[in-house]
Amino acid sequence: MRLLSLTALVMIAFAANSVLNRMAVHGAGWGPAFTGVVRLSSGALVLLVMALGAKGWRGMRMRPAALGAGVATLFLYIYGFSIASGLIDAGVGALTLFGMVQITMFAGALVLREPISPWRWIGAGLAFTGLAVLLAPGSGGQPLDPLGFALMALAGVGWGLYSLNGRRAGDPLVASALNFAVAVPLALIWLGVARDAGQGAAWGWGPALASGAITSGLGYALWYRVLPQIPASLAAIAQLSVPILAALGGAVLLAETPSLRFWIAAALVLGGIALSLRKNRPNAR
Question: What is the reported pLDDT for 282?
Answer without folding.
Answer: 45
